[in-house]
Amino acid sequence: NAHELSRQVASTPAYRGLGRCVCCFWLAVVFDIVGLAVLLLGVFVNVFFYDLLIYAGAIVIFLSLIWWVFWYSGNIEVPPAELEDDVGLLKKNKGGLGGISGAVRRLSSRVSTGIRNSFRRNGEPSATRTARMPRSASGPPVSPPERVTVAMATMGNTIQTATSSIADCGVEMPHTATETSPA
């Protein structure tokens, strides 16, 4: 495997100058130049749409950042020794999971398996979950709240309200009046 890895490293071309993503580099430069030109045009030329030019130039310069990030991330080089473990070039010994990383991997596997199995067990809605009763702070279920109907009618300049009953306790609503101002 070491011979194969060294052959892969030797076969990769050596990039010089601008690196691998030359197209992204030149697009970023063009976006910067065009954005700066439009922005400066909006600042120094006396036209009625100068604000549009300023904003458009700033937006084009901002969009050039996308090309700069593509160019930079495309030119990141990772040594093959660090790359072995990440892309599967190095075969791991599955039986020898020891140390902290092995314990974390086993714990993560147990937790994700438990969560996955609980979703499989509770996959379909049951009758107890769809008709769940609200609970009070102490825990036991409480009866659902009653709906209160308040009938209001307008008669002339006064408002008449009906009494409201919550579990037949006979609470009477106070009478209110509205004021009208002449228009």
Number of helices: 6
Query: SSE order, as H and E?
Result: HHHHHHEE
Count the beta strands: 2
Q: Report the C-alpha radius of gyration, rounded.
A: 36 Å
Query: Major sheet, described briefly?
Result: 2 strands, antiparallel
The fraction of residues assigned to DSSP E strands is under 5%
Question: Which class do the helix and strand fractions yield?
Answer: mainly alpha
N→C terminal distance: 94 Å
Protein described:
This protein has a two-stranded antiparallel sheet. The chain has helices at about 1-10, 20-45, 50-75, 80-85, 100-120, 125-130, and strands spanning about 150-155, 160. The longest helix has 25 residues, at about 50-75. It is flat, with a radius of gyration of 36 Å. With about 180 residues, the protein is mostly helical. The protein contains 6 helices and 2 strands. Helix 2 runs antiparallel to helix 3. A hairpin with a 2-residue loop joins strand 1 and strand 2 (about 160). Helices cover about 50% and strands about 5% of the residues. The protein has a domain at about 20-85. Keywords: Membrane, Transmembrane, Transmembrane helix. Pfam families: TMEM238.
